Amino acid sequence: MKALKCFAVIMAILIGAPLLVVIPMSFSASESFRFPPPAWSMQYYSAFFADPTWTGPAINSLLIGLGTAALTLALVIPAAFALVRYEFRGRAFGSLLILLPLTVPNIVVALGYFYYFGSLRLTQTYLGVILAHTCLSTPIAYLILSASLKGYDRTLERAAANCGATPLQAFWLVTFPVLRPGFLAAGMFAFVHSFDEAIVSLFISGRDVSTLPRKMFDSLRTQADPVISVVSTLLLALVVIGSLTPIVVRRMKARRQAALQRSAMQAVAVV
Amino acid sequence: MQKLRPYLLLAPLTVFLAAFFLVPLAQVLWLSFTEPTPGFANYVHFFADPFYLRVLGMTFLTSLLVTVCCLALGYPLAYCLTQASARFGAGILLVVGMSYWTSFLVRSYAWMIILGNSGPIISLLRAMGVETPPELLFTRFSSTLGMVHALLPLMTITLYSVMKKIDPALVKAAANLGANRLAAFRAVFLPLSLPGIVNGCTMVFIVSLGFYVMPVLLGSPSEQMMAGLIGQQMEEFGNFGDASAMAVVLACATLSLYALYNRFFGLDKLWSKGK
Known about the structure:
Chain A has a domain of 175 residues: Orthogonal Bundle (MetI-like fold), CATH 1.10.3720. Chain A is built from 12 helices and no strands. Chain B is built from 13 helices and no strands. Chains A and B meet through helix 1, helix 4, helix 5, helix 6 and helix 7 of A and helix 1, helix 3, helix 4, helix 5 and helix 7 of B.
């Protein structure tokens, strides 16, 4: 067991540590990719925030991600209801179609969009990238939504109907609030998927609506711009914050509950 | 009306995917047979050219190597996560998860620094007196290493999600019946974890086959993989005929692997246990 634990710790270091080298690089004063950096400075942070060729793509990625999340939810929520709740001819085909974007290699899809959106004049537009990203986010959003829908107890809806609610009222007042965490999770995954997607953006976003991954890819290919280290560090920080937040929230909730319990016990003892 | 409802609910997404996903894919297929001249010329060209065949073979070999490495490292790691204390397991899983969620571009950049000519490994070799240290970056070694590092979290998480459902009492029962630890592992735990192995290997192999970012950024320009070559053909040479024929070959390879998986296990099992 001890040997196995040692192995796990070594693996965790091998998995985690290589990522950390981007942090000291972002505080480097040198122009090269030299590691460890010969001197320290904050110059690349100010360079990042002052350079519209970096902040522009960051804003583009944010907007495209939000657009993708909204459009994905609008299309996938009704579809998930149809596929989870009804038996009908063509159901198997429907669920296969929804999962299809997950199975085709992204470079193949990118080639298709490059050609197709070129003929529709959708390359280098926000709309084009959002449409493409929505297709790619659909399977993930569907998997999350259908899982949360399957776990939903439909007697709640029937109870609402028994109390005189119309189907629409039952949906808004009962179903929607119960399923909201699932909807939120699906929207978040769609956003993250779009924000992270590099290949399709690389070929269709052009210079005008360049996304952050596209800009990063170009920068890495030419190896000319050390600002990439700042972007990498900021993205890494986002991942760390995103991973730790649920843990901290859970712990705080547990602590509050424990405190409540303790004060209740004290109250009982006093009485 | 009641009967029509599921169709009405499903219609918007179906129309959307048909218009913005199936049509562009069909266009790739169409291009591969018509650009520049109608016929099978692009495919004949692809399967007759030793350069293209080498790229195809290299892509499969590299993906296989990456899958084997990820399994060899990921299996003991996932096994340890199920056996160790909850706290220890959660800590390791947190690191694996963070790496999983980090952009491939950030991970590529990190490896560029580590393996680069002014990076720590080369400097160390120089300090140790190696006059001409080997080229590490932009080789098959660096792209394979980068891919293993990138896909190990996926393999580990997939294996773990199956392993954690294995009832530890079963292994204990085997031990009670006189099996030593190794025998209990081999007779009970390993077969029960087989679905995880199949899932993990399928996913890692398929992602590797179509991997673009890391082979292009970390690999050698003269030893590309399929995805990189497709990108180069369309971007640099505007050679849509060859690019689309290669894309169709790559897509067919991927889809037939999925079809094979679906035939034996059912596609829904591949993703439902994942994240």
